[in-house]
Amino acid sequence: MDFISVDFETATPQRDSPCEIGLTVVRDRQIVETRSWLIKPLYYPHFNSFNVAVHGIRPADVKDQPDFRELWPVLQPYLEGQFLIAHNASFDMSVLRKTLATYNIPLPEARYACSLKFSKNIWKGMSKYDLKTLCNMHRINFLHHRAASDADACARLSIKALELTGTTSEAEFADKMGSKIGRV
């Protein structure tokens, strides 16, 4: 089962303000690569203080980084034609969609699933299903709200879910994981 886990951090509440993206590549249920890129957001140098308090990324950290349009040629091969998984995918996919629309870049042909949603079907009865709670339960260490670490944690959690349900392909994902597959 191959997939790419995705995580965005944003500079402002606007969904087209990514300041970091993290990607973890999983091939045959093995993590083969985790990468992240800082991004100079559209609204630079404006960062919302709440967002900074969450992830710790400041305007000075991204001052000399590429904007999303400049970074897209590097990111596109990771996303195009892939099966993506994100924890709370509605957030991460909306950041991707809105940012691509802002820069007038076509959407990639990709499918996605949400690890928050399938976790509710697999580990029933928990009081919370946020990434931190699930990772604590499964002894997955990570630095929360940094994109590479969150993407890696999402990948590790997803691998555990795939193993537990015996899911070996995207074709059986919806039935065994109890979660729909969407299109970016």
TrEMBL record:
Residues 2-167 form the Exonuclease domain. It comes from the Bacteria. GO terms for biological process: DNA metabolic process. InterPro entries: Ribonucl_H (IPR013520), RNaseH-like_sf (IPR012337), RNaseH_sf (IPR036397). One of its GO terms (cellular component) is cytosol. It holds the Pfam family RNase_T. One of its GO terms (molecular function) is nucleic acid binding. DNA polymerase III contains a core (composed of alpha, epsilon and theta chains) that associates with a tau subunit. This core dimerizes to form the POLIII' complex. PolIII' associates with the gamma complex (composed of gamma, delta, delta', psi and chi chains) and with the beta chain to form the complete DNA polymerase III complex. DNA polymerase III is a complex, multichain enzyme responsible for most of the replicative synthesis in bacteria. The epsilon subunit contain the editing function and is a proofreading 3'-5' exonuclease. This is DNA polymerase-3 subunit epsilon.
